[in-house]
């Protein structure tokens, strides 16, 4: 897989996706918006990646939306008859939202390793990850408010499920930065590391723990947690029972028990690749 916006590697069932435009502070240009869902779904479809780590290069994780997107008439249509322009703009925003939603829609857990600034659209992105980790120099901001617009690709929808409502409103209304220490105290990030190097080492170690488990079990966890977040406890329990009746098989459990008994490490089969309908 080759992309203009990312460097991608796959080792020991861990996919490492690095934003690769440090000279532009990894701003989210047109290529980024086109390539991110393709990258996520190709990694998912392979069946080889059991966890994805997203990190970055240079001084900042990402400066958010590249201003060139706002001035690109193909990317952001702002002309023509008012009703048709509005319909087209709505469709464009939905496509941008779908790009970031790909992180939570794929069956593979996504871990975000954040250093430096995580600004605007970048905050939208990491809110869609399963878990977030950062270095001590990291900071976060809903930058859109300061720029004169309302954040529109996920932060205002996902952040209230991760942080207290009153605080999210303060962050959205003011656009102020919140630090790594504040993010950790609030539970937005799982851990703060002293440096970018320590951050990446720590997150890859967590990814290795995930990759060592049954990918079927981990995929089921993600499916259930996502469903439960958006549904009642009663509905979620019913869905869990239905899922288990179809997906539960003792094979991976037996491998775990046998490995524990013999003091070895269990080896699990990958999930089957995702193929297009009727493909050979």
From TrEMBL:
InterPro entries tied to this protein: ClpP/crotonase-like_dom_sf, Ech1-like, Enoyl-CoA_hydra/iso, Enoyl-CoA_hydra_C
Pathway(s) of this molecule: Lipid metabolism; fatty acid beta-oxidation
UniProt keywords, alphabetically: Acetylation, Fatty acid metabolism, Isomerase, Lipid metabolism, Peroxisome
Pfam families in the record: ECH_1
CDD domains: crotonase-like (cd06558)
Keyword Oxidoreductase: no
Predominant cellular place of this UniProt entry's protein: other
Family membership noted in the UniProt record: Belongs to the enoyl-CoA hydratase/isomerase family.
This protein's name: Enoyl-CoA hydratase
Lineage: Bacteria, Pseudomonadati, Pseudomonadota, Gammaproteobacteria, Pseudomonadales
